[in-house]
């Protein structure tokens, strides 16, 4: 009988904490809108991760820039997804081997990384851009950055720049690697962070077990792929389709997303590039949608408003 009362009390308390997490946890730190997100500045329409791309994205009303950062040999923080420049610049060399002044220009045409078969074409070759230049050009635009391998030096440099430009409340950092994400939070806990892939796998499991309402969450953003959509490229393309179908309702559980948003943890789906994908993300209840094609998302939003 005692066990029955204990179990009943635990279940009731868990439900209460699920519905009212503020009774146990602090509210979130994010104060800016983040529904409209440009992946690499909109790499499907403009040269990814370049100043030109981010300027075009800003004109379309993008609320959050997603980007990647690397270190050059002379210690400059450069915005680029790949360390090797083959795909972006057509040169089989690494950014980490280059000085900032010797980095080549980006190609005028490249396949969209998350949309195989679609190509970005531009008339003028664009240079790679420093993170500091983005901070200078977009002082009030929130940015989420994925720190590529660079160890403590990269973490330290990004932190220094973020503090210098008073952007700790507008910057979200982290990495696929849980170790790197933890190192970021330890180095500067004032900068917002997103979930590592380990955390993105852990929280859905805790939700299923009924434990998530009790567990503190350090991340400010839960940004995940929708596996049965995002398996066209990248690491998810190596997974069997049946596994992606199985994992999708766990990672994208509407009850999970609702609870996270209630706790002040922003949610987002990446990378969605077509109207039916945007609709799927909205159906699950994601607060934000990250896309390579900002113009397509603007059209989708306009159509959605007409229907309403």
- Taking the alpha carbons of the first and last residues, their distance comes to 53 Å
Q: Helical percent range?
A: 25-40%
Shape: globular
Give me the secondary-structure category.
alpha/beta
Structure notes:
By secondary structure, the chain is of the alpha/beta class. The protein is built from eleven helices and twelve strands. The chain has helices spanning 2-19, 51-59, 86-89, 131-137, 151-164, 178-187, 197-209, 241-251, 254-262, 275-284, 294-307; strands at 36-39, 64-71, 77-79, 109-111, 119-121, 129-130, 143-147, 171-174, 192-193, 221-225, 266-270, 288-291. The strands form two sheets. Strands 1, 2, 3, 6, 7, 8, 9, 10, 11 and 12 form a ten-stranded mixed sheet that branches. Strands 4-5 form a two-stranded antiparallel sheet. Strand 1, helix 2 and strand 2 form a beta-alpha-beta unit. The radius of gyration is 20 Å and the shape is globular. The relative contact order is 0.14. The mean pLDDT is 94.
Question: What attributes characterize this protein structure?
Answer:
308 residues, 12 strands, alpha/beta, single chain, ten-stranded mixed beta sheet, two-stranded antiparallel ribbon
